[in-house]
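Exercise: predict the fold of this chain.
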Amino acid sequence: MGDTVQMHEGGEPVNPDELPICPFCRGKANIGKVYKGDDLKFRVICSECGCSTPWCSSEQRAMRLWCNRDSPRPRNGEVAKILCFDGTRQVDVRTFSDMGAFHDALRQLEDDGWNCIGSNISWRGGIALLLRGGFL
């Protein structure tokens, strides 16, 4: 990661505006907040692709997780997969060793009329299910 973030002595980012960009799509990172019961929770989330940290009990913890993340590491060269279904039949499987290429292909497929019906995308990889022409 080529971004430099000013940190407090304890290793925490000074300010949410100094969060590094998303490692996948280079989008801007923002702090998200939500009440879970009586507890306020925080996470850092990319405004472009939605990559995020888990919900944390403090803003500083969420920022620390975002700033100290590992770069995606391929498992046998594969970090992400897109499965395409036309109705109930799987018609395409695409694998990627680079998360940037995964996001580019996902956007292109959506532009071509495929609907993303589910995804699980993290720092280390991802999978997306796309559908065209009916229900699974």
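Check your answer against the key: Helices lie at 59-67, 99-111.
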